[in-house]
Design brief:
The complex is a heterodimer of chains A (358) and B (228). With 358 residues, chain A is an alpha+beta fold. In chain A, 67% of the residues lie in helices and 10% in strands. Chain A has helices at residues 2-23, 31-46, 54-64, 76-84, 88-102, 106-194, 200-227, 234-244, 263-283, 318-329, 351-357; strands at 249-256, 288-295, 299-306, 333-337, 343-349. Chain A has a 5-stranded mixed beta sheet with strand order 1-2-3-5-4. In chain A, strand 1 (249-256), helix 9 and strand 2 (288-295) form a beta-alpha-beta unit. In chain A, helix 1 (2-23) packs antiparallel against helix 2 and helix 1 runs antiparallel to helix 6. Chain A is elongated. The model of chain A has no long low-confidence stretch (mean pLDDT 85). Chain B is mainly alpha-helical. Chain B contains 10 helices and no strands. Chain B has helices at 2-13, 15-29, 42-68, 70-76, 81-110, 117-139, 145-163, 174-179, 184-197, 201-222. Chain B is globular. The model of chain B has no long low-confidence stretch (mean pLDDT 91). Classes of the chains: A alpha+beta (358), B mainly alpha (228). At the A-B interface, helix 2 of A face helix 10 of B.
């Protein structure tokens, strides 16, 4: 805005000079002076001119003043430029010539005052704007950094879930191999030996086999007990959330193979359901909610729809925005609709998840 | 100099342009002299108006480039905007130079009273450059070639009238006479008057320098890069 103001100020002053030239009965030669000043103004409008070019203005004024007394008012242009570029020596230099040559006319004082004032103001504005722009840039940068860190965290979360699954698989394999496998193999060998033995030796061997199998059974029970999680996971967890939710009647429908859904997806689907239920309680007058979870070969789709009548469209809160981001981080999407009740649909791809596991 | 050559070629490709560039200048040579006004043969008085028409026709090509998105493609090509503009303007100036040569040489050969043909040639050349710059600056305010051209046509008539090319300058009211100093056409009129009546050499230099400063001013304003 300030550059537009500066340009118009310059050209208004050139036009003012022309007006003065028009009314005073002067020679045509001094018209060149006005055109040259206009040329300098247009150069400053198009290009960033170095401060020494102010000397050209001063020289023009000094050359033309003897021919046309009005040319002294041309000094307001270099005065403006010198204040604008904060070249105080030049400013004093111009002011001296100007005051000496104008013979202290009130118009002269007014002109020089407004030139200096606007020049000063414009630079201050530009300085302020520079400060604000720098601050805005810094903030934008910080926001981008934050977003990147958040994405990295989500990615790390996904990887951790995958690693946890792998290490758990390893632990089970080791437990089966070390204890159960060992005892069962021992028992099998003992059974083979039993065929060739009889009498007390056979009985002893049989007791040994029995003991081994008993121990194996115990071990198997322990291992399985260790493996079974205390908390419910997967689709069961969603059902549990719905059972615990007593405010509005919720209907849950499931279709497809729930075991095909990767573990880390539940950490998206679960908060999604929670957020949707909370939103409905907080913002809607719904009486019924339908939750539908479908797992096909290619994708998982969770849709939560209420029958509420929401007239005012609520802005997307940070919860939903965060969920959207998480869905996007695994290549899925989360969308909302307000047309018939409130509908949230979360779609997550399955193929990509499988690829990531491999 | 690819752009330069291409600008020359496309200037002559258009049929209407051909009329402006070839037929009118040659026709101007044969217009008769008048008894009282103007002092120059009629064709030479009106040649300034023709120069303005030619300038807007030629620089319209740049506007057409902008309209068709050529400027966008040029922006992506390994050629600077400055170079693109410079070569185009150079091509236009070359065409105008050719026209001025044809008109002056033709006039001398045909036997028109041109007073000082070489100085007249210099004046026409200076005015041609100013006219190109003026048309360029004018075009920079428009999006379509047609509207720019149509409005500029009336502007040409107006500034030629006020500048003293179409009617005797002395007939105009005094304040308009003084105001018309801002028009480049006025300086062409002054130049023609100087050539007819003679005077200080410094005056003729002054007239040409005003035209040159005008060209620079209008070039600076008109060379603003508008891609969209």
């Amino acid at each position: 805005m300030s550059s537009g103001l500066v340009t118009s100020w310059r050209f208004i002053n050139v036009i003012f000079l022309f007006g003065m030239w028009f009314y005073q009965d002067t020679l045509e030669g001094s018209f060149l002076f006005i055109v040259l000043l206009a040329l300098l103004a247009s150069l400053r409008f198009r290009f960033q001119m170095p401060p020494w070019t102010i000397f050209i203005d001063i020289a023009l004024c000094l050359v033309f003043t003897p021919f046309w007394s009005g040319a002294v008012y041309g000094f307001i242009l270099p005065i403006f430029e010198s204040v604008k570029t904060r070249k105080w020596v030049l400013f004093v230099f111009c002011l001296f010539f100007y005051l000496v040559l104008t013979n202290h006319s009130p118009l002269g004082y007014w002109l020089v005052f407004q030139a200096a004032f606007i020049g000063f103001l414009v630079t201050e504005w530009e300085k302020q704007r520079g400060v604000y722009t720098a601050e805005a840039d810094r903030e934008r940068h910080a926001r981008y950094d934050l977003e990147q860190i958040r994405n990295e965290l989500l990615e790390a979360n996904k990887k951790t879930a995958h690693l946890a699954e792998l290490s758990e698989r390893n632990r089970i394999a080791r437990a089966l191999h070390d204890h159960l496998g060992h005892d069962l193999t021992g028992a099998k060998l003992a059974m083979d030996a039993l065929q060739h033995l009889d009498g007390s030796e056979a009985e002893e061997m049989l007791n040994q086999v029995k003991k081994r199998i008993e121990r194996s059974t115990l071990m198997l029970r322990d291992t399985v007990h260790d493996m079974t999680p205390v908390m419910r996971t997967g689709a069961d967890r969603l059902t549990e959330i719905i059972e615990e939710f007593n405010h509005i009647h919720v209907e849950m429908k499931q279709a497809g193979d729930m075991n095909s859904i990767p573990v880390q997806y539940w950490s998206i689907l679960e908060p999604c359901l929670k957020e949707a239920l909370t939103n409905t309680v907080r913002h809607s007058d719904a009486t019924n909610i339908i939750v539908q979870l479908d797992a096909t070969e290619a994708l998982v789709r969770l849709s939560i729809m209420d029958n509420g009548n929401r007239t005012n469209k609520v802005n997307e809160g940070s919860g939903l925005r965060h969920l959207k981001l998480r869905a996007r981080s695994v290549g899925g999407s989360l969308s909302m609709s307000y047309q018939t009740g409130f509908l949230i649909v979360c779609v997550l791809p399955l193929t990509k998840g499988k690829e990531a596991e491999q | 100099m690819t752009v330069y050559t291409f600008a020359l070629k496309r200037s002559f490709r258009d049929k209407t342009n051909l009329l402006f560039l070839m037929f009118f200048p040659i026709a101007a040579i044969f217009l008769p002299s008048q008894a009282y006004w103007p002092s120059m043969p009629l064709g030479y008085q009106y040649f300034g108006v023709l120069i303005l028409f030619v300038a807007i026709r030629l620089t319209g090509l740049l506007l057409e480039d902008r309209q068709k998105g050529v400027v966008k493609r040029v922006a992506a090509a390994p050629i600077s905007h400055f170079r693109y503009l410079l070569e185009n303007l150079l091509a236009f100036a070359t065409i105008m130079l050719g026209q001025c040569v044809v008109v002056i040489v033709g006039g001398v050969l045909y036997g028109q009273e041109l007073y000082q043909p070489f100085l007249l040639f210099i004046l026409y050349l200076a005015f041609s450059v100013t006219a190109i710059a003026l048309a360029l600056a004018w075009n920079s305010f428009y999006r379509s070639r047609e509207s720019s051209f149509l409005i500029f046509m009336s502007v040409i008539i107006l500034i030629s009238l006020l500048g003293g090319l179409l009617v005797p300058y002395e007939m105009l009211p005094e304040w308009i006479q003084k105001l018309s100093v801002v028009l480049p056409t006025y300086w062409l009129y002054k130049g023609i008057e100087w050539i007819v009546h003679g005077g200080d050499a410094i005056d003729f230099i002054f007239i040409n320098s005003v035209l040159c400063v005008y060209s620079l001013l209008l070039l600076i304003v008109g060379s603003i890069r508008r891609i969209g």
